[in-house]
Amino acid sequence: MQLNNYFGGSWQEGEGARYTAVLNPATGEELAKVRLSTKEDVDMAVKAAKAAQKKWALVPAPKRADYLYTIGNIMKEKKEHLSQVLTKEMGKVIEEARGEVQEGIDMAFYMAGEGRRLFGETVPSELQDKFAMSVRAPIGVVGLITPWNFPIAIATWKSFPAIVAGNTFVWKPATETPMMAYEMALIFEEAGLPEGVANIVFGSGSEVGTAMIEHPDIRVISFTGSSDTGRHVAETGGKHLKKVSLEMGGKNAVIVMDDADIDLAVEGILWSAFGTAGQRCTACSRVIVHKDVKEELEQKLVGAMKGLTIGNGLDESVKIGPVINGKALEKIQSYIEIGKEEGATLLSGGNRLTDGDFSNGHYFEPTLFSDVKWDSRLAQEEIFGPVVSLIEVANLEEAIEVNNSVMYGLSSSIFSRDVNKVFRAQRDLDTGIVYVNAGTTGAEIHLPFGGTKGTGNGHRDSGVAALDVFTEWKSIYVDFSGKLQRAQIDTE
Ligand code: UN1
Fold it and tell me: What letter would DSSP give residue 162?
């Protein structure tokens, strides 16, 4: 199978194009070849998007939304197929793949509902016989750059609000997960989405991503990915005066207080730290624990971790799948060494799995370090793998301070039965998402998703906030007095 650019409603075969292999991270099997697009390809995709945009913007929003209802229904019908492809391509276990596809379906119906809202504002004018309002206007052609860890959900977070708001888009999915983009293109076609509304290019961030950001006809870049790439997107976007929305890393913590339900906390930590093999921006990678319950938590966590089955995510009994590729494995391994050098205690895991069935995939044991210093590299840097650091604290104030000590601010959580502690924590934890008595993952699509500090640049995916990225506020004054009235001028 060969995956090609998709624009103007058709697949672009292209002579002499370069391709790279898409590999199943669980088995090493080649699933497809994906085209490495060029700057010229980006230009053609933008042309197709631009040619379609004016007409698309004139389609009334409730009618644009009808396409999203159809898309959501097709995704529902294809849910199992999409989940299977997702697990094969990305590695996450099938139960989580189904969850991710569901997230996309939810987004389709949620944003379809926005087609009948897209609320603006009417406000009184300071002049008599003058009407003032602000409406959300489409922006034009928007660029979407999405990561491999949530190849379908994050694509829907960006493309569906773009569609309902009257934009057309050029989308560059991660090179590791182009098959999900191919599947989405098939769904767009089946739904009858007009040609040129959805356009897809593949390839590297440095070549294709940069060409998108620099393209004069792309007005918005919505990016989710690593902090390093995000910084480049912001710099290049800034130079070209683009509206840039960034969603980047996390170093999310679960706080466990001395009055917490420890068994519940263990479940929350396991799910949010080791689900998706720790490859979520929202993954728990620090546990900040009150000293009085540290030992109990350690024992229970180590015990529970032994019960986590590792393997190919297509097997329903498997809880932890592979990580995405060899490079990710190397990075994780390097942090194991860093942790040891920094004097942390390795309580469980720490190794790559290479025997038998594991030999062709990229498997890493769930790993728990304890006695980690809050300011060590292990506790401060994003690892993006199944590695958790336990940090001991003496009280809530210290827990909050440690939580806030990292450069990121995506998600945080507190386990406590004390309502005063919980309310103090939700106010003082400096993250865009806070959970009480639940792990750090599992955000729902109708609430804003994003983080403070180094996680982003103030924009949000999901929820009604996503529309702020994909619309421009337009203020309109209608004077029906029949004479020239001047604001701010004292005419008395
Ligand atoms: C991500 O890891 O980038 O909140 C997205 C969650 C999921 C989305 C994660 N709903 O964990």
Answer: H
Q: Specify the length of the chain in residues.
A: 492
ipTM above 0.90, yes or no: yes
CA of 14 relative to ligand 1 center, distance in Å: 35
Residues 6+ apart with CB under 8 A from 136: 118, 119, 120, 165, 467, 471, 472, 473, 474
Q: Which residues contact 471 (CB under 8 A, 6 or more apart)?
A: 118, 136, 137, 138, 139, 165
Question: Per 3-state DSSP, what percentage of the chain is helix, strand, and coil (rounded to 5)?
Answer: 40, 25, 35
Q: What is the pLDDT of residue 199?
A: 98
**pLDDT at position 492:** 59
pLDDT at residue 490 in the model: 75
Of 98, 251, 413, 449, best ligand 1 pocket probe by most atoms within 8 Å of the beta carbon = 449
Residue 466 backbone phi and psi in degrees, to 5: -60, -30
Give, using CA atoms, the residue closest to atom 6 of ligand 1.
Answer: 442
CA distance 259 to 146: 40
Alpha helices (H) in 3-152, listed in sequence order: 39-58, 61-77, 79-90, 94-114
The SS3 assignment for 323 reads coil
Long-range contacts from 224-233, C-beta under 8 angstroms, 24+ separation: 224/145, 224/146, 224/147, 224/150, 224/154, 224/158, 224/248, 224/281, 224/461, 225/145, 225/146, 225/147, 225/174, 227/382, 227/454, 229/205, 232/205, 233/145, 233/209
For ligand 1, pick from 90, 96, 146, 150 the residue to mutate: most ligand atoms within 8 Å of CB. Answer: 150
pLDDT at 404: 98
CA triplet 285, 290, 292: central angle to 5 degrees? Answer: 135
Q: Is the pTM here over 0.95, yes or no?
A: yes
Mode of pairing for the β-strands spanning 408-409 and 452-453: antiparallel
pLDDT mean for each 10 residues of the chain (492 residues): 94 84 98 95 97 98 98 98 98 98 98 98 97 98 98 98 98 98 98 98 93 98 96 97 97 98 98 98 98 98 98 98 98 98 98 95 98 98 98 98 98 98 98 98 98 97 97 98 93 62
**Residue the block writes with tokens 């926005």:** 114
Report the pLDDT value the prediction gives residue 129, as an integer from 0 to 100.
97
* Residue 30 annotated as catalytic: no
